[in-house]
Each structure stands twice: as C-alpha cells, then as structure tokens.
Specification:
Layout lengths: L31 H17 L3 H18 L6 H9 L7 H12 L2
Helix pairs in contact: 1-2, 1-4, 2-3, 3-4
Length: 105
C-alpha cells in the first residue's frame, strides 16, 4: 500500500526537510514599501506602455529589479541602471527613486 503525503507550503523561504536537517542560512529582505512600489511600477508600465514588446521588456526589467532587491546585498549601481533603463512614462521615475531611497541608510 502506497502512502501519499501532500505538503502545502507558502511564505518566504518556505521548505520541507523530511528525514534531514537543514543547516543553511536564509536571508529575506521583506520591505512592504518596496513590495508595494514594485506592484505600482508594474501597474504603471502595464497601463502606459502600449506596445506589447516594449511592455514585456519593461516588465522583465522590474523582475530583475525584484531579484536584485531580494539579494543579501542589493547593488545600488545595478538598481539605478535598471531603473534608468525603464521607459520615462507617468510616475515610473518617481517610483524608481522611491525604491532607491528605501535602500539608503
């Protein structure tokens, strides 16, 4: 008889260690202001960038921004370059500046 086990896992760095010991160190940068700003940035780009290929490219940049922000030591230079590569539409620059200001200090 086969026994099935279903695990439903969510949250930052969610994992299961079955019959093992996890000795890893995991760091999560969870700033709700940054998370909210990334959502606003995506929405702004989806609304204002009408050409599908440009919109896809801009949203990929936001994905890279998010990945960089989740790094142990996010690079301000990389983040600045990514933000500067975004289309200059609506409040994109202001949102990008806010994201960078969250890293100061």
């Amino acid at each position: 008889m086969t026994k099935n086990t279903t695990y439903n896992i969510n949250g930052y760095n969610a994992r299961v260690n079955k019959d093992s010991t996890d000795r890893s160190t995991n760091i999560v940068n969870n700033n709700p202001d940054i998370t909210d700003s990334l959502l606003k940035l995506r929405k702004e780009l989806q609304t204002l960038v009408k050409e599908p290929a440009q919109q896809k490219e801009a949203l990929e940049v936001v994905d890279y921004l998010e990945a960089q922000l989740q790094a142990v030591s996010p690079s301000r230079a990389v983040l600045s370059a990514l933000i500067e590569s975004l289309p200059s539409v609506g409040s994109v620059a202001a949102i990008g500046s806010f994201i960078l200001s969250c890293l100061a200090g």
